[in-house]
Amino acid sequence: MASSIARTIFRGVTQGSTTNFLRTAAISGVQQSSYSTGKSYDNILVETAGEKNNVGLIRLNRPKALNALCNALFDDLEDALNDMEKNPEIGCIILTGSEKAFAAGADIKEMQNNQFAEVLGGGFLNHWNVITKCSKPTIAAVNGYALGGGCEVAMMCDIIYAGEKARFGQPEILLGTIPGAGGTQRLPRAVGKSKAMEMCLTGDQITADEALKFGLVANVFPVDTLLDEVVKKASKIAGQSKLISQICKESINKGYNMSLDDACHFEKRLFHASFATEDRKEGMTAFVEKRKAEFKDK
Ligand code: CAA
Q1: Residues of the chain with CATH 1.10.12
Q2: Does 149 qualify as catalytic in the annotation?
Q3: Quick check: is 152 catalytic?
Q4: Confidence label for 36 from pLDDT (cuts 50, 70 and 90)
Q5: What CATH class does 2-238 carry?
Q6: 10-29 core/surface letters (b: 16 or more CB in 10 A; e: else)
Q7: Ligand 1, from 64, 73, 108, 174: best to mutate by most atoms within 8 Å of Cβ?
Q8: Any atom of ligand 1 within 6 Å of the Cβ of 145
């Protein structure tokens, strides 16, 4: 047990600042997912999860402000994501919040008095892109409010799963501004132009079921089992070749912004490139030999 816990400590974590313990979530009497704490931060909680502790779990943790996304939170997030990028054990990263709020948006109190020159000159919100730069698959597990920047952060992730009571919205119009972290761009690509226009121009929220219907989320789960269901999916993703997952993710995300012809050409080249990997050989050999593939991420 001690050695398996030790393996879960993120690289770069100093022994002194780390309290590691293992806890097991018991859902309906069935032990499903393990969680192990990592480095400590002011605005997020960082753990590893899954039976093999190969899932990185980041919980946004500003409960009094409904996880409003202040600069300090993004500094924490950037540091944690960079640690997870460097950690070869981690094969998938989950971003989640609380049952009440994934995140209620950018911190309105923090930006209330910002001026044009400083937001432009200072590149306000530019560092939020740290999520989209992550090479490992990312999943947003959304319970409660995902509004404004909260919805945008969820959409920066590769997959969104929602709890039944989740609410998605881009209410910036009600504040006299517009979405500034991808809301007017990723939302139409996810739900179609008409619904995105309606959401951005009225500020109206949609429910988890509507988000599923419009293709914003991949699935909806009961509130209290959402995280365990997502950890199960993330563990499955983390159990594949991490090298090939990275290539697959890149093919989808890059191709999404290209013409179909260019995207299919790009995909073909990446597919060809997979033949340069040991994991491609292992995957096909394992199939032929009727055994489970053992990927080495090479
Ligand atoms: N920024 C800062 N503080 C926020 C916040 C935000 N985005 N959202 C909520 N809070 C704070 C509230 O001010 C309140 O703090 P106090 O107790 O100190 O007053 C606390 O969180 C709890 O909030 P409420 O009392 O409002 O809780 P509620 O349950 O009545 O309502 C809510 C919940 C509907 C989410 C409501 O809080 C709300 O509308 N929040 C703002 C949502 C929003 O407009 N988001 C967009 C932000 S702009 C943006 O994100 C730009 C971008 O594109 C990047």
Answers
A1: 242-288
A2: yes
A3: yes
A4: confident
A5: alpha beta
A6: beebeeeeeebeeeebeeee
A7: 108
A8: yes
